[in-house]
Amino acid sequence: MKITQIQLEHEIFANCYLLVDEATNQAAIVDPGWYGDIIKDVLAKKNINLHYILLTHGHFDHVSGVYGLQKDTGAAVVIHNCDREHLLDPKKSLAEGNFPEPHQPVSADIIVEDGDIIMLGETEIKVMSTPGHTNGSVCYIVEKDRVIFSGDTLFCMTAGRTDFFDGSEEKMINSLKKLVALDGDYRVLPGHNRETTLERERTRNWYIRRMVK
Ligand SMILES: [Zn+2]
Ligand SMILES: [Zn+2]
């Protein structure tokens, strides 16, 4: 699978990733925080066949581009049940008051839970439920490529905030325990800031060192 990070229009938006299963040219986008010229250009230039919009959770900086992207491509919107209403409600997505143009409501097409598998062509994408930042936060794991899309759960050297209305520090600690307990090393592609590895975070992440062990 080929992974490309798409640098969106503004830094407030989350890290957005394009996944292409090379055998079939089927593609998915993780966390389109904005749907503007940059994503449109990438899709047009690469002649992308977009199948899924994979959401790590329902905050506006990850989902504000979903409406336009879904409308233009017909890709299926994938989110955990506990965050599906965030897509309909700018109060729940935190868009209202934080962002000048609250996103248009959009319905989820595929509701996922822990252990679900999404097939992108020949690539298996596994869903791991990792509540804490929001109740419906998930990580997407591609075993074949040893990569985790960790959303706002695990960051380089820290973890996501747990003080929003549906956040929970206790759940975050349990979710990080699940990630740390995975076998071996993985590339970790987080929702913000730079890429890291699971092994580096096991040993050096201050939140994990203080809270999890
Ligand atoms: Zn975020
Ligand atoms: Zn968030």
Walkthrough of the structure:
Strands 1-2-3-4-5-6 form a six-stranded mixed β-sheet, with helices on one face. It is built from six helices and 14 strands. With 213 residues, the chain is of the alpha/beta class. The longest helix has 12 residues, at 169-180. It has a single domain (2-212), classed as Ribonuclease Z/Hydroxyacylglutathione hydrolase-like (Metallo-beta-lactamase, Chain A, 4-Layer Sandwich), CATH 3.60.15.10. Bound molecules: zinc ion (ZN) (2 copies). One zinc ion binds at residues 14, 59, 61-62, 152, 191-192.
Please sum up the structure shown.
This protein has 213 residues and is of the alpha/beta class.
Which stretches of 5+ consecutive residues score pLDDT under 50?
none
Shape: globular
Number of helices: 6
- CATH hierarchy, class: Alpha Beta
User: Can you give the mean pLDDT?
Assistant: 96
Topology order in helix (H) and strand (E) letters: EEEHEHHEEEEEEEEHEEHH
Main beta sheet = 6 strands, mixed
Strand elements, count: 14
CATH superfamily: Ribonuclease Z/Hydroxyacylglutathione hydrolase-like
Indicate how many domains the architecture comprises. Answer: 1
Kindly report the spatial arrangement of strands forming the biggest sheet. 1-2-3-4-5-6
CATH names the topology as Metallo-beta-lactamase, Chain A
Structural class: alpha/beta
User: What's the CATH architecture?
Assistant: 4-Layer Sandwich
- Indicate the percent of residues in helices: 10-25%
Bound compounds: zinc ion
